[in-house]
Structures are given as C-alpha cells and as structure tokens.
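worker-03 picked up job from queue 'complexes'. Input manifest follows; three sequence lines, order preserved.
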Amino acid sequence: MAYSNRVEVRRVEMLEDGVQLASVFKIGDHTYVMLSDTKANKTVLSELPPTLGEEFGPLLKGVDAPAGAHLDMDPGGRVEGYGVFEFPYGPVSFGVPEAGGFKLVTYGERVIKVVPQVNFKKRGVEQASIGRSPQDALILVERSAGNFSASYSTCFLTAVEESLGLEVPSKARWTRAAAVELERIYNHLHVFGRLAEAASQNVAAAQANALKEDVLRLNSKHFGHRYLFGLSVVGGVRRELSKAECKELSNASRVIAREFSELVSYFLSSRIFLDRLQGTAKLAAADALRLGAVGPAARGSGIQWDDRLTYPIEPYEDIYVNMETDSGEDAMARTMVRVNEVESSTVVLREILDRIPGDGARAGAEGHRSRVDLPDDFSFCRVESPSGDLVQVVRLDNEGRVSGLHIRPPSLVNWLPLAKSLQGNVFTDFQFAFESFGLSFADSDR
Amino acid sequence: MIVPGLLDALLLAAMAAFGAGAVLGFASKRAAYLLGVVGSSVGAALSLIVLTSGASASVDLWQLTSTSFAQLQLSPFNSYFLLVSSLVWLGTCLYSMRYDDDYPASLSSLMLLTVLSMVVVLASGDGFTFLIGWESMTIASFFMILEGKGDREGVRNAAYLFLAFGEGSTVFIMLAFSGLFSLDGTFNFLGQGSAALAGPLGSWVFVTALIGFGLKMGLAPFHMSEWLPIAHSSAPSNASAILSSTLTLMGVYGLITVISHLGAYELWWGWLALAVGGTSALLGALFSAVSEHSKGLPAYSTIENNGMIVVAIGSYIVASYYGLTLLADFALVAALFHSLAHSLSKASLFLVNGWMSKLRGTFDLSSPNQVPGAGGRSVGVAGGFTVLSLAAVPPLAGFVSEWMILEVLFQSFRFGDLTSQIVGTLVGAVVALAAGVMVVTMTKAYGFGILRPRGKGPAGTGVEGGPASWSFAYFSALIVGTGVAAPAVFLLASDALSRTLGANPFGMFVTGLLGVPSPFVILSGSPFGGFSPTFTAIAFVLVLVCVAFAAGAFRTRPLRLGVAARRTEGWFAGRASPDERTEAYNSFAYSTPIRIMLRFLFRTKESVVNVGSVQRTVVESPEEYIVDLEVLDVFKRFYDVLARWSTWLSAVVSRKAMPGKLGLYLIYIMAAFIFVIIYVLLTLG
Amino acid sequence: MPKVWVARGLKKGVLTSRFPADRPTSAEIPESALPPSPTPGADWRAGRKECPTGAIRAEEERVDLGMCIYCRRCSSAGFSFGEGAGQESRALQAGAVADVARATRRAFRRSLHVMMIDVGSCNACNLEVLNLSNPYYDLTRLGITFTNSPKHADALIVVGALNRAMVDVLKRTYESMPEPKMVISVGACAISGGAFTGTEGFVSPVGEAVPVDVVVPGCPPTPIQVLEGLLLATGRMTKATRP
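worker-03 finished. Artifact:
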C-alpha cells in the first residue's frame, strides 16, 4: 500500500533546495522526519538520517521538552560588546497576553538577538493523551490552543479516523472544514485588531474587535461554541448544519467580508499604520525556508505552502483555494497575507456551505492515503491552522486507545523565524513583529 | 566700620594660606587641605565683607611701566566671583581630606597652587598680574591632569591638548588686553572707572576676549578643551571639580570684566554670543546625555551651563544695544547667578560621582554594579539635590538661574528689530531644549551613577563619615539655600554689583506680588514673569505636610512614619530580580535611543560583525556577533589632528622652556605681550 | 468615498451590551456557556461515567461547576444545557460566586483596576477576558480598566491551569499587588484544573497557591460572565440583584 501522490516515503540524506523541515517525531523505537517539499508540493517522510540529526536537535528539544520549566529557544550565537545586556520580557506582560517570554539581547533600543522563552505553560497534552480513548484525548487536544481548536480537532480526528478505519460522513468533514475557515477568519481579525492596537489606532482596533466578536457569535450560534470546542466527535460532528443555517451563515460571511474589506481600505489609507508595518521585521525567504517558518509568516516571505492545497484533506480537494502569498517579507506582507486570506476564506466558506453534501455521502477512511512502508504504524494529518501548518501524528493501540501522539504546532516552528526577523529592529517594532506572526504560546506549549 | 588695611591683610592671608598649603602638600596632604580650608574660609569671609560693605582691597606690588602697577585689588565685582570660588574650594578641600588617599602628595600641592593662581587672577588689578595668574593656573592644572591615572598615552595627550588650548587662550587674551591697553596706555585697566572702548577696537577686544575666555570655558567649537582632559585622564575628582567648576568660572569672570570695559555695544556681538552660547548649550547637553564616563558627563554638562551663561551675556549685550536697561541688567544678574548655581552644583556632582566611582572601582557608568547597596546616605542626598539643581527643578539654585535666563529670552520680543527677535526666540528654543535634555542626563547620572540597588554591600564600604560627609552636607545646604533664598543673594550683592555693572540696583528685581510679601518674589521684567523660590519651597513643604496629614486622617491606625509600609520585591514581569551583571538595564542602553535618533550628529556607527563560521543549518545558526556602537564627537576628527600637533609643540615648549626657568617664561610672556601691543597699535593705530 | 471613522461608527450604531441593566441576551450568554442541569429523567451514574473531569457528583446528585468544562458529553445521560432551569436568568445559572470582604468591596465600588495573568491556559480564556474591552462589552463604561502592572492592580484575573513553571510567577504577582486586593479565578482550569487535571504541567487549582475571592466557571466563560464576576466582586451586583 502506498500513500497518495501528495506523500512520498523515501530516505533523505540532506535537505535539498526548497525542502523545509516540517517535523521530527519519535513513534515507537524510531525517529522520523517529515519534510515539506515546497517545489513538488509534497510531504516527504523519512527515518531520521544520522547526517541530519544534529541540525534537528533544537526542534526535537522543543517538541520533547518536559513540562514544568520554561525553555529558551536560543537561535544560537553569542553576542558581546559594550553595553550589551539581556532584556527580559514576560512571562507576565500585557503586550503578550499569555504566559510566555522573551530575552532581548540589546544595547538599548536596537534588538540584536531574540531568545523566545516558551513552555511556561506546557501542560503535556501529548503524554496525558496516551492511554486515553480518542474521544477523551480529543478533550485535551482541542484545548491545546483554544483559538486553534477547530484545526486541532480536525487534524487529530482525521488521523484517528484513518487509523481506526472509520467511515466518516462527508457532511461531517465539510462541516469541520467550515469551522476551520471560520476559525481562520476570527483569528486573522484578532491579529488585525492587535496590530491596530499596537499602532494606537484605537477606533480601528475597536471596529476590528467588534467584527471578531460577530464571528465568535456566529460560531456560537451555528457550531455551538464560541471557540468551536466540542463540535467534532470521533466519526462525525455533534451538530450538523441545516440548509437554512448554511444559507444564513453564508450570508453572514458575505457581510463579514464586506465589512472587513471596508475596514482594510480605511487602514490602508492610514500612513501611521502602514509606516509601522512596512519594512518592519523582515524575514528573508531563504531564512523562512531554512528556519522552518509556516503559515502566513512563510507565505509573507513568498514560500508557497498552504496545507489546503499541498496536503488537501477531504473538502479541500474539491474546492478551489487561492494561495495568498506576498513577496514583501516584512510585517506588512504578513498582514496583507492575512487580510487576503480573510477574503479568500469567506469565499471558501461559502463554497463549502453551498456544496455541503447530504447525509448519505460517506467518505472512505482511506481518503487519499493509507498505511506506509515504515517500521512503525502510525497515521498523521496536516491542517492549515490560522497560523500555519499543524502536524499531528497518532498511533493507536489494539484496543483503539492512543498509544502515541505527536503534535507539531505552527507556533513552535515560527519562534526562530520571529527571532530572526526581529534582529536589527528597534524595541518599539517588537509588538508589530510579534503580532504579525500571530503566534500563540498556548499553541506552541500545548 | 572696617579697619583700614584689614581687607588687604585678609587677601594676603588667604593667598598665604594657599601658598603655604601648596608647599606643605609634599609633606602632608591632610595639612595642605586643611590650609586650603582655612584659605578659602578667609577668602569667603573677605569677599562677603567686600560685597556687603562696598569697600575695596588694594595692594600695590611693583611698578611695571611709568603708568602701570602690578596690583592686587578686590572690588565688589571681583569679590562676587571670589566668593563663589571660595565656597567651592572650601567644600572641595574638606572632601579631599578624606578622598584622595591613593594619589601622590604632589597632587594636593598642585591643586592648591591652581587655587592660588585663581585668587591671583580674580584679585589682579592689572593685565600683567592677571596673565601671570592665568598662566600659572594653566600650568598647574596641566601638571594636575598629568597626574591622572589610566592609559598613559591618553593622559599625556589630554594634558597636552589642555595645555595647547590654555596657551591659545592666553594668546587671545593678550590680544584682547592689548586693545584695552591701547585705550589709556596703562595695564591697570581691570580696576573700575576705565573709559569705554567702542568701534573697531571694541569689536577687536570683544572677539578676541570671547575666543580667549571661551577657550577656557569650553565653548563650542572648543568644547574639546573642557571634556577631554577631564574625561580622558581620569584625574582625581577633586581636581576635576576645581577644573570644571572654578577654572571655567575664571573665563566667565574675564569675559564679563572685559565687556564691562566696552561701551557702545555692537549688535552683532550679542548675536555672536547668543549663537556661540546656544550651540554650546545644546551640544553640551546632548553629548552629556550620551556620555558613559562618570566625569565626562558632568564635564559636558559644564559646557552646556557655560553656554547658557554666554547666552545670558549675549542677551545683555543685545538688550543694552536697544536701550532696554532693565532687561539687560536682569540678563546680567541671570549670568552671575547661573555662575553661582552652576559652580556649586557642578563641584558637588564631581565630588559625589568621584566618591561613587571610587567605591565601584570604575568611571564607567554602564559597567554592571559591583557593590549593591554601597554609598551612604549623605552621598545619596547630596547627589539628589545636585542633579535636581542641574536638571533645574524648583526651587533649587539651578532652577532659579535657568528660569531667569529663559525669562530673558522669552522677552526677546522687546528687542528692537525683527532679526534680533528671531535670533532671541531661536536661541530661547535651543536653550529650552538643552535644559530639557539635561533632565534626561541628570536622571541618568543619578540613576546609574549614584543610586545603587538596595542590597548588602561589603562591610565598611559607603561609610563616608568625617570631612567628606560634611562636604556633601555643605554642598546640599548651599544648593538648597542659594535657591530658596535667591532674593537674599540678590539683595546681598545688589548695590555692590550694580555700581560696577548695571544701570539699576539689582535689588529692584525682588519685590512682593499677589500676597507674597516683599522681597520674596523675583521679577523678570516690568511687567513680565515672577517667581518666588522661597514660597515655592514653603508650598512644597505644605503639600507634603498635607499629604502626610491626609494619609494619617484616613487611616484606621495612627500614622507612624517609616513603619507602615509593606515591602515587596520590584516587579520584573513575574521573574525574580534580574541579574545585575547581565540583565539590568544599563546607562548605555538608557541613552542609546538618542545615539540612534541623532546619528547625524553623533556619527553613530552600528555594526554587527559575524565572526563565527556559518553553516547551512535548519534551525540553529551558530553565529558569533561582536557588537559595536561607536559615538564620535563631530569635531573629534579635526581635534585628533590638532592634538597630534599640539602634543608635539607643547611637549617641545614645556620641556625646553617652562620647568625651572621662570625667568625665561616671564620673558616669553613679556615678549609676546609687547609684540601683540605693538602689533595692535600698528594695525589699529 | 471619504474615509471617516466617525461616519462608520455612527452607521454601525450602538453595539454595547445592556448588561447589567438588562438581562444578558442569548447571544451574550449562549447555550454553550450554560452549565449542565439534570432533566427529570437524568441518569447521574451514566453522567458521571461520561464526564471527563468528574464534575458530575453522582453521590451528591449535583454538578460541580468549577470542574465542568461544558463538553456536553453528559447530554447523552439526560443533562440539558440552558433548559430546565426554568425562569432563572442566564446570569444566575452561570454560577459565578464571590466571597469578598465588605471593606474590600466598598473600596472598589466605583473604580477597579484589573490585571490578567495567564498561568497555563489554552488562550481561550485570555481572549475572552481581552474581549471585554471590545465595543460589545466595553468594560470601561463601568469604571473598570485593565492595567499592565500588579503594582497598579486591585484585582487579579487568573486564567489557566496552574503550571509548575508559573507557580512562583503567580505568587510574585500576587505579592506585588497593593492591599486591599482580590483574586478572580476565571475558567474551569483556574478553578479546578479542568481538562488539564492530571497533565504533567498541572500543579494545583489556583486557590491553593493564592487566596481566591471570586470564581467564574466556564470553558471559557463568556465576557459577560467574566464581567458578572467583576461586578459581584465589587458588590455592585449581588445574587439578589442579578438581572
């Protein structure tokens, strides 16, 4: 048996051009690497070759770090010079309203090196899931990152259902995808609001936040939870959309899109706002690739990778998704990627809602892939969360309990790109850089 | 009634005390400084008597030419400057009794010799004695700087540059004096009642005097002469205090003296002084803000303050030109009062910084704190009053004088034509900006140089005690006292000074207003602004008392000072206290934003050099950075060249001509003087 | 079209909630934010089996709201959400509880400075607390403002399951606050550990590290519920005066 044409299993000795590391994980006795071949749009799986082991060390450390102590994501390199010191930021600050910190190496004002400090709130979802039934594990997984909950549960369940060989109604898969798109929309609105706040554009921030609240209320009305918790269950969804609801949601998304594009046009006429974003926190395409950036952060540097296109799970194979990229490499480019994605997401959402299949349709669990020629038996899934590629690898034991779970959150791999992009910027750009990446400590710490 | 001859005797006694101290210094430093204390006390008493009584002291030494006497005389005007200097010397000598244990004994001798020369400068009644004082002051200071510790090459360069500028200053002063000499044909032009110079000769005297004294005051573009010797030589702090606060005061004295002998001012003199003063003030403030040297910072601040004084003098000239006698006199009072406020505060800052630097073992403000908790209470308090005064916080001395200078410039709308009004307004803006920057600078000086984090220092450190503590207390009292009682200072000096300089008795600037009784309000014009430092102080105290009472009234328990508070750690975003060595915000970082914003002025170069090998890696980049942020004085490149020449030249001159051969040196002065006089007579005829 | 923010604002009209003058609407406290309540035929034992956090106490026949993560798995055992509570208001059902000393309540009646600290949340509670300042809820209209430093804070909103790496941080934050002060536990994780009870990073409920005065159950509680907790804490609303 073999994977679909989107997945390739081969032995990798070194990173070729255009190939990005997606994840490193241990399942059973072996360590595997997952790579994103951005040229061939393929996911490459391989056992971890000894030639690459060292280079993947830091990521492995980030993935495997125990809970209960924070971890420095040190990009390496020592800084010395007159007046240089480490400026500690966080873990309690309002600029980053989460438990997470940074060490900014600086001689004042100029940021020379950034060390993100993560795992202040690592709960250990992966370990805690082991031995649980998928349904119980889902409770934890969808609460790994509350604002990416739909992506997390979709990713987890797709992998689990494949392992179990469950037949899942297409309607459920399409409903999950609709939830993922709504999640993307409200998260992008959130990022936009935060950026406006950072630029002290308070009226604008209020408008963006009000729009976000509208989406949250849509979530609550149609999917039963403001943050989409508990929507999915193993083998389906708890709540199915009626035709009338689809219509209503579709219309609502049109309103959101219109309001947002109006808001954006206001923003783009504000020099103050643009000045803060343009040229701020540049992330060169080569660095984005090398350091493993994903999501809008990578697409803002021109990397062509969007799981909806490059690793399409069920509805996305049938739906046209426009990959939004920008070659600007700065905070503005990342913001514009998000802005355009809100627009394209509403289009995708409407298409999903229009074409959502009836109850009878069942998709085979094999979907587009099946078991592989690797020593260990596992299944995986990649979902494009609002902040980028989310990878989950699941192994179930004979009784159908989770015996291995690996989560590679999008935020985890985006810390080093963020650190790289901040080099040479000034303190006051920090907020814009951070918000433009849209990272969440809950996500990376899980 | 003053016994005849008493004043002369006191003057000679003060000089004798300093002289004896200079000799004794080689034997016992303590005794030398004690004599210094005695001498400056006598000097202060003498000048107070002269100021209040209006009498003069006068001692003829010997005949110079048929019309000139070498002469010591002390008029109320000179004695004002002698009073200010004596107050500074008194505190500095007290402090030195405890401070400079690790410097050679010759330092105390050189310091007292410098002081003695300054007395000669201030008390000289003729140009010749003045120049002798001026030269010996320069040379004694030169050797004092040479005693400094640190990089030998740097110290030598600094000292020789100082000497070069000093000689340059002497030459220009000779040129100015030659003009004054040509008027009456006598050297005794420093006394009163000399006729006034005008026309091209007046311009000649004014410009040469501005350059000559400006060189000593460290005015832009010669500010290098002020900060370099002090900052680079790591000269002991007591020496720095004398150099920075009283040596530059001699420049102020000289400049005002020369101007008082000029009549019919030209307008452009005023503009020139305003421009030079404004530039110096702003440059000094900015460079002070980015200085990381615990003595470089106050040295630059001296440039700023002297700039302000010259601005006041410029305003005096412009106002006089337009016949605004009231404004002109107020400007002059402002200049005089600022000299007082600055000299006291600056000497205090040097002493406090010196003390702290000694405890910390470094002059580098941004080096991590070595001794948490070091530094005693009196250093902290004196440092606090000092920086508040220099940052112009009411009602301290520094505020009163800066307020006066700004009030003068606010009134530039009274100037007779548009150009002067614009010049006055622009300079006003520049001075206000400089004053603003000084707030940042002084916050830095206190926060990083004096204030230490709470903690346990090594036992024994920071217990200053004895003379040093007295000195800190003495300066604090003077800074607060001269500020709060500024009207009293005016009244004290009023008659004596106005007789020499002004058209109006200065007492008229103090009055009563809006319920504040006379003479507690300082009026800056009629009608314009008014300020009462005394009542501001009273109001401050009242507010504090009210707050204390209110706090007590609303408490369930009676208020007990010092007991009630619950102490917690500082807030570091949830972390434990930062590591002082690696995580504390340092003074360099504090002023880096200014370096980056004003890169065109500071020639800031930021470079991150990658030295480690870079491998193609996925997430880790083992790179090594060496960070360098360099700040250059714009004029430094020019001075570097100049310094090389002057080092060579001065070395030749000093080795061949100066030491041990006083006669030769006198001949050099005489020859130069005569040459200049002949030159001027020929050219101006 | 000229881009005039004011015109846009006027066009949108007033969005702000009528709470606390009026009852919260179903959009403000949706079904998903209401706790489970047993219908007449509810099976407590089956409910306890389904419940992932042990919030359903079969022996005492009650639901511990501090533990409930609102996952609705107990609906299969006959528990309902938002129904069956009869005429009781939604706010009352949500179950925020305050136990604040009278003197403290009085001190903060008109002005309250609030700081939020995250000690291990999934970010949902953080977002809901931040949402309080959006135009729909507009916290400042009630004299409540957010502050960034515990030195300025009167009340500390704690969100998340207390993580081992954050225990000292939380204690330091609490220590730094001036007296009088209060702590508000927001969300099941802060109150009891919620879904994360038993994970590697979880230490204890927040109440065991610092004294908690107010609890706001939910997973996450909606902004209105958090707001209600704040109003209860300051004594501006009591159980009796809940709209």
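worker-03 released lock.
Chain C touches chain B at residues 117, 149-151, 168-169, 172-173, 175-176, 179 (CB under 8 Å).
The beta strands of chain C are 36-38, 56-57, 62-63, 79-81, 97-98, 112-118, 144-146, 155-159, 182-186, 214-216.
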